[in-house]
Write a structure and sequence with these properties.
- By secondary structure, this protein is mostly beta strands.
- The protein has two domains: about 290 residues, YVTN repeat-like/Quinoprotein amine dehydrogenase (Methylamine Dehydrogenase, Chain H), CATH 2.130.10; about 50 residues, Herpes Virus-1 (2-Layer Sandwich).
- β4 and β5 form a beta hairpin.
- It binds 2-acetamido-2-deoxy-beta-D-glucopyranose (2 copies).
- The site of one 2-acetamido-2-deoxy-beta-D-glucopyranose has 4 residues, from loops.
- It comes from Echinops telfairi.
- This is WD repeat and FYVE domain-containing protein 2 isoform X2.
Length: about 375
């Protein structure tokens, strides 16, 4: 059989720029420093490190700071260079990094949770620090005074946290598979709604404030796109991973979603196509293995892998409907966290192998 000639778009791949190694335990979160060739990381090995690229071409720590507890999460605000770190003992510690990223100065610490902080978000506009913890609490604090402003008990431990500054809506995704939307005021909050679509826990959330859609990644291997702005309750399932989805990022300028998971996959989804909601997987009729042995991918419904469809639908699925709307790449590590730097098109992936990888995504995110 003659080798198939692949369309050019399918052969484009992320380019591995750098491996950043040296952490003793998994790096739970890390960010690319804007305008610098640098990375800030927090690790289970209790360290906070700022890595800068040296003349040798390698990334070496310019800051190495050991905390007394494992660092579970972080939020970095580039404008103020404020670094908020969530710790395994429930404390949030804040630092200001110097302009040259060679020094970090402690600002304050406060006991935000009874146990491990799972997510943290600094909101500069409102001077709020939002956080979730293993104690099943969502809390928000004043970033200036450190004062506790309010809290809300979630149905399970949360591992997804996003905020819409304009409406002051906070999105919390938890291990029960539920997404909770709260409206925050200065000192109280009200429940807006909750929704469920996953059969596993929510592992990551990503909010697009322009299209007003929320993406949730789950241990059930899927990503769901929730149309929040449309208010019709539309939810579209994206199937492109063979294992747990662990991290999400959204490239607003190109309208591409990046999902990463335990399978090492980096999937880049084109969100500029109209996908449809589904049931039968195509026509909505119930189909079982006995009634149909036919399988097909239906990318316009979010299924990049083959799924079971009924016989008549199998006949009617067009080549156009089968054209992939996502590209698939292998990071060669089990990804726990990602960060996308839109200005340069760089992606950071952090894996269970304790390695941070930096990728040039411009061949695929454009
Ligand atoms: C948690 O660790 C931090 C930073 O190392 C420390 O300042 C704080 O007192 C600890 N909190 C508790 C409750 O042990
Ligand atoms: C919540 O806070 C807002 C403003 O901070 C206030 O106007 C409102 O009355 C409060 N609602 C409740 C139920 O306390």
């Amino acid at each position: 059989m003659a080798a198939e000639i692949q369309p050019k778009a399918l052969t484009r791949k992320p380019i591995l720029l750098q491996r950043v190694e040296g952490s003793q335990e998994v790096v739970n979160m890390a960010v690319i420093v804007p305008k610098e060739e640098g990375v800030i990381s927090v690790s289970e090995d209790r360290t906070v490190r700022v890595w800068l690229k040296r003349d040798s071409g390698q990334y070496w720590p310019s800051i190495y700071h050991a905390m007394s507890s494992p660092c579970s999460c972080m939020s970095f605000n580039p404008e103020t260079r404020r670094l908020s770190i969530g710790l395994d003992n429930g404390t949030i510690s804040e630092f200001i990094l110097s302009e040259d990223y060679n020094k970090m100065t402690p600002v304050k610490s406060y006991q935000a949770h009874q146990s491990r902080v799972t997510m943290i978000l600094f909101v500069l506009e409102l001077e709020w620090v939002l956080s979730t913890g293993q104690d099943k609490q969502f809390a928000w604090h004043c970033s200036e005074s450190g004062q506790h402003l309010g809290g809300y008990r979630t149905s399970a431990v949360a591992s997804g946290l996003q905020f819409d500054v304009e409406t002051r809506h906070v999105f919390i995704g938890d291990h029960s598979g539920q997404v909770t939307i709260l409206k925050l005021e200065q000192e109280n909050c009200t429940l807006v709604t909750t929704f469920r679509g996953h059969t596993g826990g929510v592992t990551a959330l990503c909010w697009d404030p322009v299209q007003r859609v929320l993406f949730s990644g789950s241990s059930d291997h899927s990503v769901i796109m929730w149309d929040i702005g449309g208010r019709k309750g539309t939810a579209i399932e994206l199937q492109g991973h063979n294992d747990k989805v662990q991290a999400l990022s959204y490239a607003q300028h190109t309208r591409q979603l990046i999902s990463c998971g335990c399978d090492g996959g980096i999937v880049v989804w084109n969100m500029d196509v109209q996908r449809q909601e589904h049931h039968c997987r195509k026509c909505g009729k119930a189909v079982c293995g006995k009634c149909s042995s036919k399988r097909s991918s239906i990318p316009l419904m979010g299924f990049e892998f083959e799924v079971r469809v009924c016989d008549s639908c199998h006949e009617s699925i067009t080549d156009e409907e089968r054209a992939p709307t996502a590209t698939f790449h292998d990071s060669k590590h089990n990804i726990v966290h990602v960060h996308f730097d839109a200005t340069r098109g760089w992606l950071l992936t952090s894996g269970t192998d304790k390695v941070i990888k930096l990728w040039d995504m411009t061949p695929v995110v454009s």
